[in-house]
Known about the structure:
Elements: H1 8-18, E1 21-28, H2 33-44, E2 49-54, H3 64-70, H4 75-88
Amino acid sequence: MTNNELDAEAILASVRKTRCVVTAEEHQMNGGLGDSIAQLLAREEPLPLEMVAVHDSFGESATPDQLMEKYKLNEAAIAAAVEAVMKRKK
């Protein structure tokens, strides 16, 4: 497996247990891990997905904590994504 490939079997096995997914990453939403998992789910196991990632914005200089807060990549954003996906879970 190369660095660009997902472990589809492991992801699908996990998703089939939880029936939903939340991804969190310090990356642009488009083209990131969440986007790749969304594509996998669309093909194999359409289930609720929430992504915590940067929303089409250029990076800036600041402390890591300040950047996490600015781009909503913090604990509160992840908790909100979990709550949102759980409401859509069947």
